[in-house]
Specification:
By secondary structure, the chain is an all-alpha fold. It has 2 domains: 143 residues, no CATH class; 350 residues, no CATH class. The protein is built from 23 helices and 6 strands. The strands form 3 sheets. Strands 1-2 form a two-stranded antiparallel ribbon. β4 and β5 form a beta hairpin. It is globular, with a radius of gyration of 24 Å. 50% of the residues are buried. The N terminus is likely disordered. The structure holds L-captopril (X8Z) and zinc ion (ZN). The site of zinc ion has 4 residues, from α15.
Length: 618
């Protein structure tokens, strides 16, 4: 997640007339004074925010974020209202200028008056603080003093959700996290929604959801996302059925799945958003070549730093840029959870400080496979920042937010192949057979396919909240309507609209961070992966001699060249043009994802049919 202020693209203290700038004047202005001042402000905002997020109980640092936001907003508003509010893209002929002016109308949250902007910033900070410092008592000591014995989300609570198979402990942990976060965030969220909407309206959007969707430059965006879901839903349904049966075997009468819905706490993950932690239970052929990277990492005494270096080496093997600075703790990065008593926002993020040299990762890394993959994800953001760093300020963004989220995952698809893991010595005694390949596809589906409905529903819910189509007293039940409709999961215990606020127990909701990008990224990454595999000559799309899911484009400079050409554009072109460079097509398509999982889909359908066939009684 990048923190970049949405600044209008036109501000100069030296311009003192109210006349519109000519094409040349505007160009010169954007290249010089604007570029410098916008970047400096972005740097300042990032420093304040990073300092706060790595010490969230520090009031002074929290206040500094608000002061900084207000200061920058003042600067933005002042210049905007004096000189630039009437600019239209069509006033200019140069395509790049036109495109920069497109975002020039936007003041972002700076459109709010001082008091309201301060209130919005404080509300978001408070919600982030509640989430980041949320603690629960251990199951075995439920009446604890949380300040002494409380468990935090990363890694303690997440570990319980990942490893425990005690149904009641899981219910307790699932509920306690929501009590510690969502319930407390509930009373702040209406203020946030009101102010966020007010800011959006001041920018001429109907609400915050519409404002977020602006970045996707697609009038049919909502429908297009729904259509993609329709294409992938059959695969999700088969996976859900298969996994549901295995879970039933594990939990027996405790687990009620008679209505086709699975309780949300038994998937090895707090939000049931990725199911990789129950791979041992659901792996189709348990006796065949196990993918146990966690043990290999421990055996080989990998350190946190080793994980980052290994990921960096993968990117460099494609001829891409080295990223040592982003995980260098002496240069300010945070790759370990601090042990000096500081509370931090542990949720992983990648930061572009807009000065062309400061890039940092912030992550409470543990030595395990899951975090190894997350590192590749985060480094995808850093690589993108580096590749577009010479673009004008306005274009130092992803082609759209989905692209930014997809790059690192694309790398990780290659890294996670048994083929690659063998090469880097993290997988031993692995023989490629049909069974082994179904196992490995299952591992991937537990991450990628399981995620899809979750990735879609968070913003579907927020779009409804922002637009007002669901009343405040139905916010929580509406959340569960979507959880049931898309993920086909249900709450393990009763929920109440009066006291509960379950969306607040997921980072991005209190964090004011849009989420549909991840849904789109889960589709795009398979398009990118397929195309890079072809470029690397590791996949033959006509003869399909080797299945797509086996392709590792490690060390392919051709793949790196293709990727670089797309990333360097930033947001200077419409995303469809970047997509064309990266994949040869301008259209988002679920086909590569479906092609990748085809063998697993067949397997799941056959198994589910067998299981559903009524047994003949003798
Ligand atoms: O938030 C993230 C990244 C940071 S951009 C770690 N992700 C989503 C999540 O954790 O919910 C990556 C996948 C989905
Ligand atoms: Zn990300």
């Amino acid at each position: 997640m990048a923190y970049k202020l949405l600044l209008p693209l036109f501000l100069s203290l030296f311009i003192c007339s109210q006349a519109k700038l000519t094409e040349d004047e505007l160009k010169r202005f954007l290249e010089t004074k604007y570029e410098k001042e916008a970047s400096q402000n972005c740097y300042k905002a990032n420093v304040a925010e990073f300092d706060y997020e790595t010490d969230i109980n520090n009031k002074t640092k929290e206040e500094l974020t608000t002061t900084t936001v207000l200061e920058i907003a003042d600067w933005v508003k002042n210049i905007w209202s004096k000189y630039f509010k009437d600019i239209e893209p069509n006033d200019y002929s140069d395509p790049s200028l036109k495109r920069q002016v497109r975002t020039a109308h936007l003041l972002g949250d700076a459109a709010l008056d001082k008091e309201k902007l301060a209130q919005l910033t404080n509300t978001t900070n408070t919600m982030t603080g509640i989430y980041g410092t949320g603690k629960i008592c251990p199951y075995k000591k439920q009446q604890c003093d949380v300040t002494k014995d409380g468990l935090g989300l990363e890694p303690d609570i997440e570990n319980v959700m990942a490893k425990s198979t005690d149904y009641d402990e899981l219910v307790y942990t699932w509920k306690s996290w929501r009590d510690a976060t969502g319930v407390k965030i509930k009373k702040l969220y209406p203020t946030y929604v009101t102010l966020a909407n007010e800011a959006a309206k001041a920018n001429n959007f109907s609400d915050r959801g519409a404002y977020w969707r602006f970045a996707y430059e697609d009038d049919g965006f909502v429908q297009n996302m729904d259509d993609i879901w329709t294409q992938v839903e059959p695969l999700y349904n088969e996976l859900h059925k298969y996994v549901g049966r295995k879970l039933k075997q594990r939990y027996g009468d405790k687990l009620n799945v008679s209505d086709g819905l699975i309780p949300a706490h038994v998937f090895g993950n707090m939000w049931a958003q990725s199911w990789g932690n129950i791979a041992d239970l659901v792996v189709p052929f348990p006796n065949v070549s196990k993918m146990d990277v966690d043990s290999a990492l421990v055996e080989q005494k990998y350190t946190v730093l080793d994980l980052f270096k290994t990921a960096d080496e993968f990117y460099q093997s494609l001829g891409l840029l080295p990223m040592g600075m982003c995980y260098n703790e002496s240069a300010g990065a945070m790759i370990n959870k601090p042990t000096d008593g500081r509370e931090v926002v542990c949720h992983a993020s990648a930061w572009d400080f807009c000065d062309g040299e400061t890039y940092r990762l912030k992550m409470c890394t543990e030595v395990n496979y899951e975090d190894f993959i997350t590192i590749h994800h985060e480094m995808g953001h850093i690589q993108y920042y580096l590749q577009y760093k010479n673009q004008p300020y306005a274009f130092r963004e992803g082609a759209n937010p989905g692209f930014h989220e997809a790059i690192g995952d694309t790398m990780a698809l290659s890294v996670a192949t048994p083929n690659h893991l063998k090469k880097i010595n993290l997988l031993k005694n692995y023989t490629e057979t049909y069974e082994a390949s179904i196992n490995s596809l299952m591992h991937m589906a537990l991450e990628k396919i399981a995620f899809l409905p979750f990735g879609l529903l968070i913003d579907k819910w927020r779009w409804d909240v922002f637009s007002g189509s669901v009343p405040e007293n139905k916010w929580n039940s509406h959340w569960w309507d979507y959880r049931k409709k898309y993920q086909k999961v249900k709450a393990p215990i009763e929920r109440s609209d009066e006291t509960d606020f379950d969306p607040g127990a997921k980072f991005h909701v209190p964090g004011d961070s849009q989420y549909i990008a991840y849904f789109l990224a889960h589709i795009l990454q398979f398009q990118f992966y397929k195309s890079l595999c072809i470029a690397a000559q590791e996949y033959d799309p006509v003869n399909k001699t080797v299945p797509l899911h086996n392709c590792d484009f490690y060390k392919s400079v051709a793949a790196g060249d293709k990727l670089r050409a797309g990333l360097q554009l930033g947001s200077s072109k419409h995303w469809s043009e970047t997509l064309e460079i990266l994949t040869g097509t301008k259209k988002v398509s679920a086909e590569p994802l479906l092609e990748y999982f085809e063998p697993l889909y067949k397997f799941l359908k056959t198994e589910n049919e067998k299981a559903e066939k009524p047994r003949v009684r003798r």
